[in-house]
Amino acid sequence: MTTEKPASPSTIPAEIPADLGSGLASRLERVRATLRHHLTPSPEGVCLTCSFQAEDVLLARLALDLAPNLPILFLDTGYHFAETLAYRDQLARDWRMNLINLLPAQSVADQERQHGLLHQSAPDQCCKLRKVEPLFAALAGYKTWFTGLRREQARSRTALEESADFALPGGQTILKLAPLAHWSTRDIWYACEMLAIPLLPLYAQGYTSIGCQPCTTLPLDPNDPRSGRWAGRKVECGIHIEAAPNPSAPEPGRAA
Ligand code: SF4
After folding, report:
1. How confident is the model over 149-165, as pLDDT tens digits?
2. 123 pLDDT exceeds 70?
3. pLDDT tens digits along 197-230
4. Taking the complete model, does pTM exceed 0.85, yes or no?
5. Atom of ligand 1 nearest to the CA of 131
6. Measured in angstroms, how far is the CA atom of residue 95 from the centroid of ligand 1?
7. Which atom of ligand 1 is nearest to the CA of 129?
8. Residue 68: partners with Cβ closer than 8 Å, 6 or more residues away
């Protein structure tokens, strides 16, 4: 795997390097084979979560080629960038996505009236209410969960497996699949380029990991793509902790 970490798609040459081309094609075929195994002849019981960042969109494109009605789950926290929502809506229209926007129990206005700005005072609690709980409730309706997670994204994900059982709070276990787990950032950019997948315009502004607007800045460390998330206060929203156990990761209480 390459260790190169381009800061954004605009920092890479437009032409796919010769050393990458054939390797990328075979990696794409391997991902397609995994998707085919789980989505055909029927995608029943399968979903894919999509933050509309590049790896999720790439995986969604490959999956939709096999199962056009596959449920695509998006965590509609109410705090996203306007650019993310516009891009989501455009892609959902263009790709005729079966998009399911997962909403928290409370609106942003109600949460802020009751608790104030939790993303400032208690981001773990905010993520729990607006991301973790809505997603886990939705996942209970499925047996298999595809995600675009990758090891290279963060230190907390270096032990990520392509396939793992995932226990939901209610005790149900589902299969969590991350077929891009071993892909580099460079692989993702070039695969999107190869497949003519348009990217979230915020990448062109220098963002390298994009979540809710109040908790996302430009990367603080050019070698750490997630260093612009939560201003270094935490590294995970809490959804993926179980799938990426890592002794060097923050304590579970901190990494909600
Ligand atoms: S990322 Fe920030 S705004 Fe979004 S749910 Fe978590 S704490 Fe709240």
Report:
1. 999 887 778 889 999 99
2. yes
3. 999 999 999 998 899 999 998 988 888 888 888 8
4. yes
5. 5
6. 28
7. 5
8. 96, 98
| CATH hierarchy code of domain 9-232 | 3.40.50.620
Nearest-angstrom CA–CA distance, 181 and 161 = 7
What would the DSSP string read from start to end of the chain? ------SSGGGS-SSPPHHHHHHHHHHHHHHHHHHHHHHSS--TTEEEE--SSHHHHHHHHHHHHH-TT-EEEEE--S-B-HHHHHHHHHHHHHTT-EEEEE--SS-HHHHHHHH--HHHH-HHHHHIIIIIHHHHHHHTT-SEEE----GGG-GGGTT--SEEEEE-TTS-EEEEE-TTTT--HHHHHHHHHHTT----GGGGGT-SS--BGGGB-S-SSTT-TTTTBGGGS-S--SSSTTTS--TTSPPTTT--
The amino acid that residue 74 corresponds to is F
Please name which of 183, 171, 167, 180 lies closest in space to residue 242, comparing C-alpha atoms. Answer: 167
194 CA → ligand 1 middle, Å: 33
* Type of residue numbered 12: I
Token digits of residue 19: 């050393």
CB 160 within 8 A of CB 243: yes
Domain residue spans in the chain?
A: 9-232
Q: Is the CB of 79 under 6 A from ligand 1?
A: yes
Amino acid at 217: T
pLDDT in the model for residue 203? 93
